Amino acid sequence: MALGFGGCVRFDGVQSALAPVSPEADHVFSLSWIMFWGSVAILVLVMVLGFYAVFGRRRPALDGNKMVIAGGVLLPLLALPPLLVYALALGDGLRAPPPEGALRIEVTGHQWWWEVRYRFPDAGDDFTTANEIHLPVGQAVEVLVTSNDVIHSFWVPRLAGKIDAMPGHANRLTLKAEEAGEFRGQCAEFCGAQHTHMAFVVVAKPQEAFEAWAAGQRKPARQPSSTEARRGLAAFLSQGCVECHTVRGTPASGRIGPDLTHVGSRRTLAAGTLDNNSATLAALIRDYQEFKPGADMPSHKDAFDQPTAESIAAYLEELQ
Amino acid sequence: MAHAEGGYYVPHFSFWPIFGGVALTSMAAGASIYLNGSDWGFTVMMIGVALTLLLMAGWFANVIRESVSGLYNTQVDRSFRWGMMWFIFSEVMFFGAFFGALFYARMLSVPWISGADPSTARFLWDSVTLNWPTAGPAYAALDWEPMGAWPLPTINTLILLTSGVMLTISHHALKAGQRGKSTIFMWITVLLGSLFLGLQAYEYYEAYQHLNLRLDTGIYGSTFFMLTGFHGFHVLIGTVTLLVIALRLMAGHFTPDNHFGYEAAAWYWHFVDVVWLGLYIFVYVI
Amino acid sequence: MTVATHAEHHDGPPSSFFKRWFLSTNHKDIGSLYLLWALLMFFVGGTMAMIIRAELFQPGLQVVDPHFFNQMTTMHALVMIFGAVMPAFTGLANWMIPLQVGAPDMALPRLNNFSFWLLPAGSLILLSTMFMPGGAPASGWTMYPPLVLQTGMAFPFMVFAVHILGISSILGAINIIATVLNMRAPGMTLMKMPLFVWTWLITAFLLIATLPVLSGAVTMLLTDQFFGTTFFYAGGGGDPVMYQHIFWFFGHPEVYILILPAFGIVSTIIPTFSRKPLFGYSSMVYATASIAFLSFIVWAHHMFTVGMPLSGELFFMYATMLISVPTGVKVFNWVATMWKGSLTFETPMLFALAFVVLFTIGGFSGLMLAIAPADFQYHDTYFVVAHFHYVLVTGAVFSIMAAVYYWLPKWTGHMYNERLAKLHFWLSVISVNVLFFPQHFLGLAGMPRRIPDYSLQFAEWNMISSIGGFVYGASQLLFLAGVIICIRGGKKAPSKAWDGAKGLEWEVPSPAPFHTFDTPPLVK
Predict the structure, then answer these.
(1) Which CATH topology does B73-285 take?
(2) pLDDT classification of B1: cutoffs 50, 70, 90
(3) Fewest beta carbons within 10 Å, which of A192, B165, C387, C465?
(4) Chain C contact set for A18 (CB, 8 A)
(5) CA distance B267 to chain A (A)
């Protein structure tokens, strides 16, 4: 049985399509309100007509045919083409290819986390992280989305509409954040038991800050500094963690789970679900299944004791 | 014993419908249990199959008895016609799903993988180039050959088309009151149908033995065997139906102007014919 | 099995309970069986909905674990669609179409009972998966691969249940077409048929055209799972998106299968209680036919986010928008029917009026979803959930409630308890809006569907929605009570239970005798 922990991370308003921070999301936001109020107006009109039909005194004789033709045929035929044209212009923009030389991010959905690979003109600069995407503010970024297993959907409501992560296909999305901030993204295509716990964080920051972050992420993992962390590294390397996880700069090079080279720098754990701190980290290492039943990461309750889990957590926390 | 003499015949009650519910449940549950890895499910499924065969035999025997004893007026006959027509239409739509899958694979998914969608091709499939017939990028190392249109499928096409002509000759003979001639041509049709099935079985044998073409040979194997397999199954049903009709013809069940059972079987046969033409063109030739 | 003996000739129902209810060929008894099964499944599916709303009452996981929650969302949809709403409409068709066209029974009475018995067979196979290791299917009712291929033991059972329920509906639809085309009383031309018959005729066509396609799709799932085919695996040259195309080619017409008979019911009830003939009868028929036609060319609007070429999006967006024209014609025809009528507000009329208003809301949210760029935001959120529940609950289910209250006097010979029924109506109509309207906001704000746990910003509206859900669920017990009370007794109903009612069904006594229209009536 899973613990209830949905409330552990507060994301008030950070996941709302009604608080757009990109031109695309903003257009859709205005379109939504236009359609919403348009619908309300037409609904009210029809209901007033209906109400009048029922209760009105001295109702004039009505040419029903004219009403049906006007309301049922002409109204939609007049109201809808502008909507269609507007939507077309908008859709064209939303799916437009990114400008030449834009930063490219490859996002791969897994049950239930996001692998994020940054691509640079020089392949030596590429690096991989997970469940967290950093963007330079004001720049269009190309996001290529695919999946490793089932269909997922990549969605950051404040930045853009969603695009499905399809196994065997790569879909493209252009993201552009107009202001700095942290925005929550979430998987929007039902993907199994832990679909509800497959979120991620998008951090938009100024260009220099972004570049500093990228430079940090590019580096191999730092050496453990404390005794406990050293013990943690030894346990990490000997307890099978390396089968699934990569920590660049160590022998760990598994590809099944998230890259942990800089896990300590991330804001959340377990795909945007829990705050990142050493206690949570230790608890997850010890018994991941308790938190996310069904995930690939096994429970290690029987494999090692709490102190070992804590030392591994201490090591991972140092991986800033 | 019609409900209202001279009126529309409404049978009073029937055991077969609920029997059919049990039969299909047993077949479905048995097959599911078997697929989940328990061998006893196979027994349950075969009991279901046996019950379903019994159901069809019993139900049709029931209808034949009622028909022969003259309970059905022309309005009942029309109900059967509408029923059969729409049943065949539903079968057409079933095949439509599989033809749809074939067209989709050939026109959309395979081209997308091999370059029509640049990001997919570059990012995921290392820019492979695939041309139909293909099993797909993950099966590139597999050594297999597609099924050519010549000789077996073409011969089969001729057999099936000829059988349609034979059936029509038989039908005209029946309408002209020449029962003997009608019966002979009906038997020829049944024979041609069986020949088709035999050759189809031989084609599958060839595919598995010599071409290394199997049901799990990627998208080509999937569409090839599912389409021809379901078609073959329908030919089997059609052949058995025509066989029954041939026997009923000999038993004198049909008159020159009242023989809907015959016509329904003939419609079904022509439907199977037409589906084959689609298969021949889109699966084998093009 | 055998031809009946003369002894039973022209009598009432057979005296043996088993014979009457298990071996029936009588359209009224089979209709009742359908309706009772639908009612049972309505409560089974409703219980699942209550579990869903209980879990969503607060953020975090309190009541059930996520896997069970996913089973609930999946089974709730499958049970409600295939077990409750479709059989309820088929039951109404069984009862009313022969009465409305003046036929002695359905065209193929034995086949009719076969259609019925396949329904419990398929439903029970489906429900039995809940007690298997690994539980029921938890892939969503759309059964998208590759996720659905992760279903455990339930997988083949689910596939075969869909096959059996499909066969049931196809055979039922064939029967309805044959009845409508072949069994009409002399003088009843096609353009004189009651609209309920018309809408069902078109629905039956949709059923026959699309359910085999669904069968094909789930068959491909089965072979992909067990026999190594690669229809939905890109490495084998297939594509998971292909499943979605095939599924929604069925799925969109299916939506209209669930709503066209509702149009027919509302078009029957509004004229009765307005005491005026239906305005624009022929335009209603043509509008229904156009909606059915359009339903075949809009399927991909369920898939705007799969990464479709812009030209595809344009086509499906445009075709979808066109649906608003025939739908608009219908709504304005209903308004025109009421214009200057002398209206009374018995419960069937209340449900029909609520249908017109609330279905229109569902139509507008549907239009918003049809705009591809906007759908990139709304897709797979609670906005979609709100949309299709407005269409299916306040649309299809409300119309079924309206129809049940409207025809109960004909079926049972008793008037239902009007005060209880009105209480049921008002509680339902208020709570259903409390239940579903906030879900529009949740979706627009960014809450994905099919999640048992959500971030805190969504807490308030979810709580309100759940409260509405519990009240709505509880008030359906009033419906059950009303129906039971009406079956057991009540004020005698005259043969014409509503003074404004028109149609052949009101010319036979209430309750309708076991056999009606042995001799076809003459329609002038």
Answers:
(1) Four Helix Bundle (Hemerythrin (Met), subunit A) (1.20.120)
(2) very low
(3) B165
(4) 444-446
(5) 43
